[in-house]
Amino acid sequence: MIPLAESATDPSLAHAFERSLEGIRESVALFLPEAVLTGAICLLIVLDLLMPKRQSRFLMFVALAAVVGAGALIFFMRSTINQPLFNGLIVIDTFASFLHIVLLLGAAIVIALSYVYRDFENRRMGEYYAIMLASLLGMFLMASANDLLMFVIGVELVSIPSYILVVYTKEDRAATEAGLKYVLYGSFASGVMIYGLSLLYGLTGSTNLADVSRFIVGNLDSFTVAVASLMAFAGFAFKISAVPFHWWAPDVYQGAPTPITAFLAVASKAAGFALLIRFLDAAVAGAGESAFHWLNAIAVFAALTMTVGNLAALWQENMKRLLAYSSIAHAGYMLMGLVAIGSSSAAMGGHQVVAFYLVAYLFMTLGAFVCVVAVYNLTGVESMSGYRGLGRRSPMLAFSMTIFLVSLIGLPPTAGFAGKFQLFAAAINSGYLWLAVIGGINTAISCYYYLRVMKVMYLDEPAVEPSSPAFVLDAQGLRWFAGVLVAAVLLVGIMVDLVARVTQHLIIVTG
Amino acid sequence: MESYAPLALFAVLLIVMPTSMIVLSRLLGPRRETEVKGDPYECGVPTWMGARNRFSVHFYLVAILFILFDLETVFLIPWAIVYKSIGAVALVEMGFFLAVLGLALVYVWRRRGLEWE
Amino acid sequence: MAAADVIFLVISIIAVGAAALAVTRKNPIYSALFMMVTLLVVAAVFQMLSSPFLAVMQVLLYAGAIMVLFTFVIMLLSLRPEEMGETAPLPQRIFAAVVALGVFALLAFPAIEPGVPAAAASLAPPAAEAVRFPPAAGTGDGATVEFGATAYFGHTIFGRFVLPFELVSILVLAAVVAVMVLAKRDLSKRDVADDGSDRDPPPLSVSAAHAGSIASLATSTQPTSHGPGA
User: Fold this and answer.
1) Which CATH superfamily is domain B2-110 in?
2) Looking at this predicted complex, what is its ipTM?
3) Which of A156, A215, A402, C15 could hold A204 in an S-S bridge, CB 3.0 to 4.6 Å?
């Protein structure tokens, strides 16, 4: 009954098809890093089937090797090129390559952190690393997406694996609850986003970002375009946990296994920002001054996000929850930098300052989570009471944590200071002085809860005894781990010029 | 639009036939209610428990796996139609897709997801 | 009014009516059935938009497979009438209706905003050409590849959009692994029970425990403290 059309023999059709195949053939070679990740996902699943449970944790080295391999390939093959791949579905530009390296760095640290995390003992880990790499692959696509279809595929490929990672310790009630909340909020957010994107497709008749950009720039005052973009923004904002799409973050961050919390806080957020930047760049950058109300909207979101995050963090007693609100606040700071995305007056554009800040944020946030894992492995506690007297029990850990907290506040000579300085400068140069003032007030507020952690560590009496001697050895390793990240935070802070010069070369190519 | 005429005819038949069967049997058939007739039918065996039980979560696993592999078909149909005009490339494209899904199937099988107990 | 308009009018009334009924039914099975009606009718809309492939997929996947999944969930929980909970209080329902109407207004506006469709038509030619693949609704050698036909989908998926197609396989692989990771708790529990005494499968134990944990999750007042405004 259904008329299935016969296979086409139309010559012009065949020609067009040949052309698109040609484009694909050329692209495959440059797609090697993603191919390495894909191969590693399949290999991990096969190996996990073959290995006994006890040995499956050593599959960490396979995952790590894949991440390092992909990083090397990106560095040697793609670090200077700017060209669209797969007929413009994705684009490999310096911005994408930079984000890819940042994502790989974050993933490598999280993979290593998972290896020592206490709750992952006696668990099948091959699947875990496979799912994590699948999520990483999705983030890669988000960072280089140049087509609305790739937006959707990327976001789903990130989201579905992360839902599972959150409930990986599924006997834990808090993890199950977190997973349920994450799935419900997440699928709703991506549903809204897809609706917005499909409206844009309906308006332009194209999913290509360059076409969409041309349409949006020509119709900046259209209410329909505003509605569609706002709906798309809801999806991005969910990923970066910007107010008012942040409700999931505290519960999920608290309930998830700590390495996964770190993964969501750093990698997922970086990918979300990459996507948001690509979208905003397409919509606003070409429009110049006429896009001011879009920038005003971003500024309002930024102000709300940092204020809500910082105020809510004041009350927190659980370290992971505190860091969750802190990460919401940092999303606000980064949104503040994005108001410079269309501005030509700033020395560095919005996407460059945000990319710079993502590096600083990566090291300091992952560092803080390494300390959380170390304390948890030693004491089994994630609340503030586990940190009492840490300065005496484990001076190096407490010192590392202090450096990370100082960096999170944004004090010199740390990476956090360098990054924040540029965000503020970008906002002021783009004429958003009021936003910078709000950012300053927020930084002052944030001092309270970061400093409180330091007070607990150095001034309070120890309350919790080490509960699991079996993990003391791992904690020894974690101390060095934290030490390396401290060095990274300080290095980025001191060598500001170098990192800034690298980020200045980040170019966004659309189309 | 003419090509859908058989479909429309089919739809009409589909509605008319069962409706007429039900209506006719109600009008013409004798109705003698007994207690046995009111029982749920269980292959002639006397009923021994309520109908509203909770089902095992195993059913759900089967259902989800069914949907995931059902997705394959969706892509296989257009593939089969254009295969001839595309040629060997189509084989490579679908080969990769099926290899990954085959791996998924092997995984489910080795993890005993297909066994009931 | 043309015949197509009449058909569309009937179809849309059924779709909207069934959707409204699906939301307002208290018994979840009725909701599921009405939702199935909506999904089937949407398949008819796809057919009217000359996309038979999408129409068939809508029936196979949504009205078929996905709805089976929904029904499974309802059967797994198998709530008795007294477990279905109270109807929401009137103020809450009014609020929900207002929100729904607001969202509807927001989404309906694009259909009537003047000027925008015209702008879409004036899209620069090179971009428009890149969009349409195959280049035109081609008629050659008697074969037709029209927009929406199955062959059109084939050429699009296996030509221009082959990358997302392959990525979908990775997505499905991840989803399969995810399903197994989630369901394994119950399977391993069964392993433990196997060497134990009770051989016959207890009709309620596993699923009831599962359903119970879900239900308690949904209703428990969480100890996790929210920030201000929670």
Assistant:
1) NADH:ubiquinone/plastoquinone oxidoreductase, chain 3 (1.20.58.1610)
2) 0.88
3) A215
